[in-house]
Amino acid sequence: MPRKRKSANGTEGQGVRSSRRSAGGAADDLTAVAVDPSMMNVWGDFMADESTTNTTTAAAASTNDQAASASKPAATATTPSSTFSSPSGPRSYALPIQPPKATPGLLAQTGTLDASVPGRSSISKTPATHEFECPTLLFPQSVFGSITTTAKIAHIATSPTSCHSVAITTDGMAFGWGRNETGQLGLGYTSAVVPLPTQLSIPGEEGEITFVAAGVGKYHTILVGSNGIAYASGGNVCGQLGINNGGVKQIEKFRKCAVMGQVVGGDTGGGEDEDDVNVKIVQVSCGEEVSALLCSSGHLYTTGSSEHGLLGNGETGEYIITAGRLGYANCAKFTRRSIFVQSEADATAAAGGTTAVGGGVDSSGKVKCVPLEDGGQISLASISCGKNHFVAVEAATTSGTDVPRVFTWGSGDYGCLGHGIQADEYYPRLVGALRGPMFASNHPVDAVAGSNCSLVRTKNGHVYYVGKHRQVGEATMRFTLIDALANNSHNVVAIGAGSATVFCSTKAGVTVSWGMGSHGELGYGTGENKSSAKPKFVNVLDSCLVSAVACGMGHTLFLISNEDAEDAKALKKVPKVEKDDIAQFVEQIKGKKSDAGADEPAKKKQKSKKK
Fold it and tell me: Which is more confident, 240 or 346?
C-alpha cells in the first residue's frame, strides 16, 4: 500500500503524488496558479479555519430542515422596467452537443451490491463477498466479457438518491443492476434487487437500438438511444418519466418519452416550435422525481416534479390539497425551458454600473432577477441533477473567447445553488461568482450535483465546491476553490458527488474522496474509517487513471483506463469480483420479494396536476 505523502504545510493525505507517467503528468502541463486569498477558506469545517468570508452558518437548516424550507423566500424572476443587455450579444456555439464522453475502460464499484440495504440498515461489521470496501472491478469476464470481448465501458450512471446503476459499452449496449422495486430497470418485472448487470433493451426493438447516455433517479431510469430518442421506465408519480401520461404511476418496461417538438415516426411530442422539430436528444440527468434532457442544439427540456422550481419554468404551481398537504403543478412530458436569469445586481455589474446600497432586493427581501436577453439562444454543454437541484454549464463558443456560464436552479438548501442564500430558484440562474477575469483562461467545463452540494470543474482541472455533503458542520454558501488540490498542482479530470460523498480524480492517477459512507462507498478499504472530513487518498486506485466517477446511494462507480502496459500494471492491485464469487448472494435474493416499505413512491403525498 503506498505511503501517504505530506504536503508543504505538513498535513497528511493532501500532498502531491507525482504522476506515474514518464511524461505528460499533471506537473508537466499545469503550472502553479496564484490563488485568490478570498478563496483559501474552503470547506468550512473540512479544512483549516483560516477565514469565514465565504462560509455562512447553516445550523438552522441542519437542525430543522422543514422550518428552513418553509421560511426561505421564493427567488422568482421579474422583468424590470429597464432591460440589461448581454455585453457580447448572442453567442455562436460550437455545435452539435455530444453525448457524455469519457475514456472507455473497466467498470469498478465500491459499496454494496445489495441495493435493498442503503437507507434502511447498516453494513455488517464483517463485509460479505458482495460488500466492497474499496474499488473492485465488476464482473470483467463473467458478465461483460461473456457478452462482448472487444467493447469497453464508455458511460456510467447513478445518482445521489438512487440505489441502481447503468453502464453503457462502447458498442452501445446498456446494462442495469441494483434496486428494482418500481421497475426502474425496465426488465418487465419488479424485484428487490437485480444483483448482476443485466442487459437492457426496448420492447419490440431488442438488439436494434444502441445507447449513448443514461440517467437514473430514485425510482426511474432514462436511456438515450443513438437515434436521439429517450426511453423511460420506473416510477412516474410526478410525471418524471416524461411519457405524456401523468395518470400512469409506474411502468416496468422502457417506453418512448414525449419531447416537445420532437418528430418520431410522424408523431410529435406536443410542441409547435418549428426550430425544435426533429430534436435529437444526447444527454440526460435525473433527480429524485424530476428529469432533464439536452438535445444536440444544447436546449434544455424538463419534466416531473415542480416542487422547489425544479422544472425551471418560473413556478411551482403549489396548491392546497387538504390542511397540511400541498400539491404541485407537475409536468408529464419533456418541455423546453428557454428563460435564463441573473440577479439584478449581477446584471448591473456586467453593464458596468453600481448597485446602490440595499438594492437588488424587493420590499419583501427577495432577490430581484432579470431575464438574460440571449436566454432563448443559450446552449448547454452539460447538466447534472442532485436530489432536488440542477447545475448546468454553457456550451463553448466557436470563437473560444466567451467564458461559458454556469446556471443553477431548484432547491437552495445549504446554499447548494451557489448564490449565497438558502432560497429556491425557479428559473436557471446565472452563478455570478463563476465568471470574471480569473475564469477567462480557466473557464468552467463541467459540473456535478450531489444531494445538497454542487461541484464545478474548470479547464485547468480546478474544482469549486458549494453546499454541504456531511451531516455535521457548516455549509459553504458560495462556490469556493478546493485549494487542497489546486495548491498542489492536481489537475482534476473527473468529479463525482453522492448522497454524502465527494470524489475527485486527477490526470496524474490520484483519486481522493471525503464525506460519509457507511457502506464503504468512500473506498478506503477494510478496517479503514467510513468517513473523512478532508480529501483522503483512495489507495487502491493509486496510479489508476479514472476517467469518470458516478456516486450513488450506498455505492460509487468508477471508469478506469485500460489502454496500455502502465494501465495494466496499475490495475493489478485492484481487486475484482466475478459471478461465482457472489453465487450465494445471488441465490439468496432470487426468491426475495420486493419490499418497498416506507420508500414506496406511490405513498408520496403529492398530487400530480396537469399543465
Answer: 240
